[in-house]
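pasting for ref. prot 1 ->
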Amino acid sequence: MSRLTLRSRLTIVYGGLFLLAGLALLAVTYILVRAQTIGPFTFTGHPPETIIAGRVGVAADQYLVQQADELRQSTMASLLTQGAVALALVGGVAVLLGWLVAGRLLAPLHRITETARRIASAPDADRGLHERIALPGPADEVKELADTFDTMLTRLDHAFDGQRRFVANAAHELRMPLTLNRSLVEVAMHRPAASDDVKQLGEVLLDINARHERLINGLLLLARTEHGITDRSYVDLSDVTDHVVGETSAEGLTATVSTAEAPVLGDALLLERLVRNLVDNAIRHNVAGGWLHVATDTVADRARLVVTNTGPAVPRYEIPALFEPFRRAGAERVGSTGLGLSIVRAIVRAHGGLVTAEPREGGGLVVTVLLPLALTEAPLVRR
């Protein structure tokens, strides 16, 4: 059952109060008019001691009294009828004016609601925080509410910007020592006097260092995509898919590709990373002798990329967590950085698209990416 809007309730309250006041005014007017008409009409005619004897005098006096009563009743009935009609007409006008006035008074609240709705429906939690209500008008309670809301948005915007800058700066600062560590380990491993134990230890350290470098690069890419995309060019997802799958090693797995033209406008490097992350994820989280299939096509006004693979069964309730940073499902995912699918989601959202995942019957996932289709008349800057 739908509830009445605030505008409707204000109109009903305003109209009801007006009608009650009108009824009270009509009742008071009726009482006052009746009190004024009863006195004169009751004593119309001659006093009893002065009435002329005879039937003519009595009949004339009764006729005058009867006419006075009829005139009084007609006057009161006319007052009630015309007063009720006038009250109904004026009440209708009052309700209409109340509706218009309530709408004008509530217009600032609608503006606040629309701004909050746009921010809440933004693809990322922080994507719409740059918006402000900036409500004009007198410094009343509604403007105070809007200004408070703007202040809250400003603080949240600064907080998210600070978080992104911290992640980007921290990742950038960490890349230098990791590069230096890799160089030192490689030098130590390739010395002529290096023992087998040193070489084995060096392999372990290089593997750990490479995993940390992937983590740092993932953080940098994640911070970059959250700032949005400024430079866009024509990119065919089928070309990107063929290129990525062609240079990807899937030992022990059967990899198949089914590509049809799927043009989009976006960042070619980020779209390549999107496809690569999905393919690597399908390879890493698979089973011995399994397979993976990558397909591209168009659906309505969307370009579609679908990556399907065999693998361990993933409960449906765990799928949303897979797209969160540093979230993994199952012990077999411990070796990953936990940023692969979160980077995919960030890239997709930066391109105005949507990514979903569904558990495949028998194990594995079906990951679907939908991106806005590029217009044919767009300038073609092929990858």
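and prot 2 ->
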Amino acid sequence: MSSRIREARRERGWSQQRLIAEMERVAGRHGGALPGRDTLKSRISRWENCHANPDDFYRQLLREAFGLDDHELGFVETSREQVVTAVDELRAHLVTARAPDPVLLEALAAQTEAIRRQDRQYGAGPLLEQMRAHVANVEEHLSYSAFDSSRRPLAQLLADAAALAAWQALDLGAVDQAWRFFETASRAARQAEDSALYAFSRMEQAHVLGEVASPQTAAELAVAVWHGTQRQVTPSLRCWLAAATAEMHAAAGDKTNARQMLAISESLVDDLAGERPPYLVFDRTHLERWVGHNLALMDDPAAEPKLRQVQSELDGTFTRAGAALHLDLATSLMHRGVIDEAKHEIARAESLARRVGSRRQLQRARRLLGNS
């Protein structure tokens, strides 16, 4: 077994002491106790030099600390199983029913929704591990279903679950993992013939591109998704797609197209009052927050009053969104040269981001502080 712990640590710019602190934080969240730091440092060195392998307890801590899975950390070796064993396993799992199992579908959907609700308030840190296992479970049910009549509803559930896992991975800084989960979601949505979930997953992939490629590339993908899907989705999702495309344009410095897409999104605001799919956490207040975010990206002085208004209306359970709002306020204040007040907003954002373990928002806070 070839460990990738050192590589994962260095990719994040972490020392061994920082990794120890992250492991202690995860262990504390689970109510577990760890040995002293000198002992942990010795163990990490042995793991990194392949002189020993972490046991199941430490593997869980490392997975959550890094936001990576067993394959990405080198804990799992691929082996070729006997043909007889593989055939026997297929025979044991294959489902030949032509109608989907409603009890199974309800249970899988309920599990996704339960994790989604916790994620909104408490963050992705303690949940990504569960979500990875849940996605793998839904994928397995799908892979052993023989008929399309059973596969389509499972594919729809997989698309929703994988998109949530991708967002959690992105928030924890595991960008490569986020891309793969969104890719799984996109493929599953195609299989489910769900144009809304497909549009949602592909637009979220544009957010990942904005993290790892260039803002211009992200904007190009967003525009392609908008033109390719906006006539196939409900007005509420069209509103969200337009706002997301506006954000990509604003990040790329294209203010003209950003304002055009914001105007389209705002023209559809009344449609947000209707029924929305569970994965679309988006209402009038969230749209206003997104408008304020875009205005801040464009150095527009209207950003600050817009964000102040939203601040008084935003549901306090959306902790991650609150952190983003404070960072947008800080951005707007910095544009006006009000540095001390901007730093105060950054501190508030960091407090909220730490509460939910949002590395993405913490990284954004550090970048803003670096520019102050």
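The chain is about 75% helix and 0% strand.
Residues 270 and 284 are 8 Å apart (CA to CA).
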